[in-house]
């Protein structure tokens, strides 16, 4: 079997209206790591000031300025300068963004099996939770109306 060191990874940018994500965000990430669901590859914060200037805080070089608990970054720097520049353009002035790159541990074996069989993933899309919940709620309401 083709054995990959890493499984599929996801690059996520989240925006916060505060200057830092809450401790609960780092706790939720830690919980996912503890259960073996994900492995954190890289994590950094991008502060976009009201004047449009940008500061980047590399969590790997954080020196305890921000408490991220016991999180260990497996591949710090995987989010490159170009990624940071693109993320900074998305973040509203006066907000902070988190760039979070994580590996889907659950999918590592599946990815190896695809590769081993000559398979290629042609398309994959992550649907944000608010969209899934809104669509599911509408579908459920429509089903109830139809059954009545």
Describe the overall structure:
Helices cover 34% and strands 23% of the residues. The chain is built from 4 helices and 4 strands. A hairpin with a 5-residue loop joins strand 2 and strand 3. The longest helix has 19 residues. The termini are far apart. The model has no long low-confidence stretch (mean pLDDT 86).
Structural class from helices and strands? Answer: alpha+beta
Distance between the termini: 52 Å
Major sheet, described briefly? 4 strands, antiparallel
Q: What is the average per-residue confidence, as pLDDT, rounded to a whole number?
A: 86
Radius of gyration: 19 Å
State the share of residues found in helices, binned by percent.
25-40%
Q: Low-confidence parts, pLDDT < 50 over ≥5 residues?
A: none
Q: How many E-type strands?
A: 4
Across the major sheet, the strand order is 1-4-2-3
Beta content: 15-25%
| Count of DSSP H/I helices | 4
* Helix-strand sequence: EHEEHEHH
General shape: globular
